[in-house]
Task: inverse folding
């Protein structure tokens, strides 16, 4: 039972890490340095870095203007 739990935790951690790395490469940040900084944080501190990235991501990305309604 402990082995199954450990394997599940490892797999979930790897999935979270890959999702964060993939998201960082696709996201448009306010400047290029932020992109590199987040990549390094998530790469060298996988679990905590990915969690912090997803929590703070909205503060650092370029915001698209809202479309005006046609009414």
Result:
């Amino acid at each position: 039972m402990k082995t199954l739990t450990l394997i599940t935790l490892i797999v979930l951690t790897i999935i979270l890490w890959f999702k964060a790395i993939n998201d960082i490469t696709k996201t448009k940040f306010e400047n290029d340095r932020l992109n590199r900084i987040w990549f390094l944080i998530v790469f060298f501190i996988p679990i905590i870095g990915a969690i912090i990235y997803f929590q703070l991501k909205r503060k650092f990305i370029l915001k698209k203007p809202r479309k005006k309604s046609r009414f």
User: Anything to note?
Assistant: The helical segments are 2-26, 32-44, 46-60. The mean pLDDT is 88.
